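Hello again, I could really use a second opinion on something today. I owe you a coffee for this, so here goes:
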Amino acid sequence: MTIKPMIILPDPVLRKVSEPIERIDDDLKKLAGDMLETMYEAPGIGLAAIQVGVPRRLLVLDVSKDEDDKDPKVVINPTILSSSDDRSVYEEGCLSIPEFYADVERPAEVTVRYTDLDGKEQEVTADGLFATCLQHEIDHLDGVLFIDYLSRLKRDRVIKKFTKASKQNKL
């Protein structure tokens, strides 16, 4: 397994819409394993392939709180089938926007259809942190970042801060 370098805001790659995955092969399984290792190392609870520079509809997540009882999930070509009218607010962060957190309101419950690493179609109804994490990562596959849910002023400030930081790092 390999720790992958993270794509950081303001890199335009983060705004790309990811392509559907046509087949599950050894390369995809290796990518999923590398992504899980990268996510755990960060540490984070979710990671979309685009965040490691691969514009494919793949995400990994693990919202378990216990280090000894990990529950990694690999989600391929996810589609949100339904969202509840009830809303919930979680303080979200993102491995591609390090050390910035903000409250984001999303549907409290979602039902998602996806393919697992064995090629089997799955359907899951998620709530709580699991629902929030799924929505956050699926957004990445569509080129949407959690800062897009903030006011224009807050979003512009974050983008400006990361743009400035990236220019300073390239000097």
Q: What stands out?
A: The chain has three helices and seven strands. The two ends are 32 Å apart (CA to CA). The mean pLDDT is 96.
